[in-house]
Design brief:
Strand content: 15-25%
Number of strands: 21
Strand order of the largest sheet: 6-17-11-10-9-7-8
Number of domains: 4
Helix content: 40-55%
CATH class of the largest domain: Alpha Beta
CATH topology of the largest domain: Rossmann fold
C-alpha cells in the first residue's frame, strides 16, 4: 500500500516536471540560498513554533534536496530507493495517526523554505493537508524602497498585532488596509482565541470563494479584503455559509473590479455618456424621483453640509413636483442601517451621502438594497455598486490664482488648504500656476488648517501676506468675508472673488438623468466591474468664480476670458512645462494630462512654499478622512 501511494505521488511529480520543463520553468524546488546568496547576513527573528499554510511553503533552504522533489513538493526519486521507502512509511503513518512532528523552516517575505522535514511536507501536500506546525526563523531584508520589500515591512506591522501569517499581499498599502478593516483603531495584539476564531472564519470564507466563478482570476485574499470593505469584519463571523455565498453573488461587480484592477471611469462632462433615441426607448422616463441626502453634520455647524443642502433645494425647486427630496443630518451618530431601511420602505429611488466619512456605510447599503441608486461625494473610489461625485475645483482655483497674482502688492500670497485628499494638490498647483502666469516672482505660502497646532494667521502675518486664498464655499456667519480670495487691509478683510461649489447644478443634472432614463446607459459599465466617478467642472457649471465689485474691470475681463476658455477646452491650466519643488520636470511642453493624472497629483509646483502633511501631523478628525481619501494614506514623509 505504501509503495502504491509513493508511486501515485511520484507520477504527480514527474508530470509536473514535464509540464514546467515544456514551459521553460524551473521544475524543481527553489533553493533560498541560491535565490538569496547573502542570506546569512540578514537579521533573524525566532518566531518559535507556529502553524503555517502548506501553500506558503515554496522551497528548500539549501540545494541539497532540490532535485528530490518537484516544485510542488511531490517526490521524484526512483521507486524502491531508501528515499521512497521512508516516504511510503511516513505516508502510512500519516494515514494511521497523522504527522505530529514539527518541521523546521525559514521565512522570507512571508514564504517558507524547509530546513528539516521535506518528506513530511511532501506527504501532507499529497494528502491535501492545509497546515503544518513549524519551528520558524524569520529572515528580515533591509529596507530598499523596493515595493515588494516595503509591502513586507507593512506585513511585519500587521503580524505584530494579529500574528496572522497566511494573508498574502504583494502590493504596498494592502496590509495596513486589511489591519484597519479587521481592527479599526484598536491595535491591541490579538489573543489566541481571537486568532483561532479568525482562522476558522477565514477557512470558511476561502471554501465559499473557491466555488465562485471568479476564484480562478482573483486571489482569495484580495476577494476577502473587498468583502470586508463592503460588509465589515463582524459579518465574516456572523454570516452563515449560505449567506456568504449570497453575499459573494451580490458583489460580483466589486470582485470584477479587483480582478481587472479597474481605475474609476472619470466622467468630466454631463455629455460624456452617449445619449440617443435608442437609449430613451430602452430606458423609459419616470414621472417622479424620490431622493434622500445623508450628511455627517448639520447645516448650522458645517459649511459643507450647508452647501449641499442649498444644492438640493435649488435642484428640487428647478424640477418642481417631479422630484421629492429629504435630508438626514449627523449620520455618523445615527443608526445608518435603520435609516436606509426606512428610506427603502418609503420607496426612495436615490440616496446621496455627501462625505467620504459615510462611504463605508453607503457601500454596505448599496449591497443590501440594489434597487436604490447610491452616490457618495468622494473621488477615486473603485466600488461599482455605487457612483461617486466631486467637482474640478482646480479650474476655479486657477482663476483665483491669476486674480491673486494680479492684485497682490507682495510677492508672498497665502493659500489655506484643509485636507490632503485626492484633487487637493491639483487645486494648490493650479492656483500657484495661475499666480505665476501674471506674477512670475510670486511665491505661494501653503498652510494646512487641519495640521495639529496650526497657526495659519500667525504665519501669514509674519510674512506680511495680504492676499489669501481661503475656504471655497460661502457659509452663513461672520467668517464669510474670509472665504474665496480676500485681501487683508488693516483689521479688515475684503473679499475679491469666491470660488464656489454649485451643487445645485450637479444634483439637477443627476436628477434629470434618472427622470429621462439616461442613468441606465452606464449600468453595463458598472456590471463589468468599473466604477463611475462624476468629476464635473466649469463646463457643467458645478464650480465657478464670482468676481467682486472692487476688482478692476480689465482684470475681471481677463478672468472671464480664461473662465470661458477653460470651460470650452481651449485652455488648460496644466499645460507644460511644469516643474515641481525639487526642479523635476513633471509636465512636458505639449503634454496633456489625463483627468486621472490630475486627480492623483501628490506633488507641488516649484513656486509653492510648503508641503503635504503626513497623517501623523493632522488632527484626529482630519486623520479619519485622510485614511479614506488621502493622497498619501500611509506616507510618513513630507514632500
Amino acid at each position: 500500500m505504501a509503495d502504491q501511494t509513493y508511486q501515485q505521488a511520484r507520477k504527480l511529480g514527474l508530470k509536473e516536471v514535464k509540464i514546467r520543463t515544456a514551459r521553460h520553468e524551473d521544475p524543481y524546488l527553489p533553493a533560498l540560498e541560491e535565490l538569496l546568496p547573502h542570506m546569512n547576513a540578514l537579521n533573524e527573528d525566532d518566531l518559535g513554533t507556529i502553524r503555517i499554510d502548506i501553500e506558503q511553503i515554496v522551497g528548500t533552504r539549501s540545494g541539497a534536496r532540490r532535485d528530490a522533489f518537484s516544485a510542488s513538493f511531490f517526490p521524484l526519486l526512483e521507486e524502491g530507493s531508501e528515499f521512497a521507502s521512508k516516504w511510503g512509511a511516513l505516508a502510512a503513518s500519516h494515514v494511521k495517526e497523522g504527522i505530529r512532528d514539527s518541521i523546521v523552516a525559514v521565512e522570507y517575505l512571508n514564504r517558507f523554505y524547509v530546513v528539516e522535514g521535506h518528506k513530511r511536507v511532501s506527504v501532507l501536500r499529497f494528502f491535501g493537508a492545509t497546515t503544518v506546525r513549524a519551528e520558524v526563523k524569520r529572515l528580515i531584508p533591509p529596507r530598499s524602497g523596493d515595493p515588494e520589500i516595503e509591502a513586507y515591512y507593512e506585513f511585519l506591522d500587521f503580524y505584530k498585532v494579529t500574528r496572522v501569517n497566511n494573508l498574502l499581499f504583494d502590493r504596498v498599502g494592502a496590509y495596513p488596509a486589511m489591519l484597519r478593516l479587521l481592527c479599526g483603531d484598536d491595535l491591541t495584539p490579538w489573543d489566541e482565541d481571537r486568532r483561532r476564531s479568525f482562522f476558522s472564519d477565514l477557512v470558511r470564507f476561502r471554501k465559499v470563494f473557491a466555488a465562485s466563478p471568479l476564484s480562478s482570476a482573483l486571489t482569495q485574499d484580495e476577494a476577502l479584503m473587498r468583502y470586508l470593505e463592503i460588509y465589515g469584519a463582524a459579518a465574516l463571523a456572523e454570516r452563515s455559509t449560505a449567506e456568504l455565498k449570497n453575499d459573494l453573488a451580490v458583489i460580483v461587480p466589486e470582485l470584477k473590479s479587483v480582478r481587472n484592477e479597474s481605475e474609476p471611469v472619470l466622467l468630466t462632462d454631463p455629455a460624456d455618456p452617449p445619449r440617443g433615441i435608442l437609449s430613451r426607448i430602452v430606458h423609459p422616463s419616470v414621472k417622479t424621483l424620490r431622493a434622500a441626502f445623508l450628511h455627517d453634520k448639520d447645516p448650522e455647524s458645517s459649511y459643507w453640509t450647508y452647501a449641499h443642502e442649498q444644492g438640493r433645494l435649488a435642484a428640487q425647486e428647478a424640477l418642481g413636483e417631479r422630484v421629492e427630496t429629504e435630508s438626514r443630518f449627523n449620520m455618523l451618530e445615527a443608526d445608518f442601517d435603520n435609516t436606509i431601511r426606512e428610506l427603502a420602505e418609503k420607496g426612495t429611488d436615490m440616496v446621496f451621502s455627501t462625505t467620504p466619512r459615510l462611504l463605508a456605510s453607503t457601500l454596505s447599503a448599496a449591497a443590501a438594497y440594489p434597487a436604490i441608486k447610491f452616490l457618495n461625494c468622494s473621488l477615486n473610489v473603485s466600488h461599482p455598486m455605487l457612483r461617486c461625485y466631486y467637482a474640478r475645483m482646480y479650474e476655479a482655483k486657477f482663476l483665483t490664482g491669476v486674480l491673486a497674482g494680479a492684485l497682490s502688492e507682495h510677492e508672498n500670497i497665502g493659500y489655506v488648504c484643509d485636507y490632503p485628499i485626492y484633487s487637493m494638490p491639483a487645486s494648490i498647483n493650479a492656483f500657484a500656476l495661475g499666480v505665476r502666469m501674471v506674477n512670475p516672482r510670486a511665491r505661494v505660502l501653503l498652510e494646512w488648517s487641519t495640521v495639529e497646532g496650526a497657526d495659519v494667521e500667525g504665519v501669514f502675518a509674519n510674512y506680511g501676506v495680504t492676499a489669501i486664498s481661503g475656504q471655497d464655499s460661502l457659509i452663513r456667519d461672520e467668517r464669510s468675508r474670509r472665504t474665496g480670495l480676500f485681501l487683508t487691509v488693516g483689521d479688515r478683510q475684503e473679499n475679491m472673488a469666491s470660488s464656489f461649489w454649485n451643487w445645485g447644478a450637479f444634483y439637477r443634472k443627476i436628477f434629470e438623468s434618472f427622470l429621462d432614463g439616461s442613468w441606465g446607459e452606464l449600468d453595463s459599465t458598472s456590471d463589468a466591474g468599473q466604477t463611475i466617478n462624476y468629476w464635473w467642472g466649469l463646463s457643467a457649471g458645478v464650480v465657478d468664480v464670482r468676481v467682486g465689485e472692487k476688482v478692476p474691470a480689465e482684470t475681471a475681463r481677463l478672468i472671464d476670458f480664461l473662465r470661458r476658455s477653460i470651460a470650452d477646452g481651449s485652455f488648460r491650466p496644466f499645460d507644460g512645462p511644469v516643474y515641481d519643488q525639487d526642479g523635476k520636470l513633471r509636465i512636458e511642453k505639449g503634454e496633456i494630462l489625463t483627468p486621472h493624472q490630475i486627480l492623483m497629483m501628490d506633488w507641488l509646483v516649484e513656486n509653492v512654499d510648503g508641503a503635504i502633511p503626513t497623517l501623523e501631523q493632522l488632527t484626529p478628525p482630519a486623520q479619519e478622512l485622510v485614511k479614506i481619501q488621502g493622497i498619501r494614506k500611509e506616507s510618513t514623509e513630507t514632500v
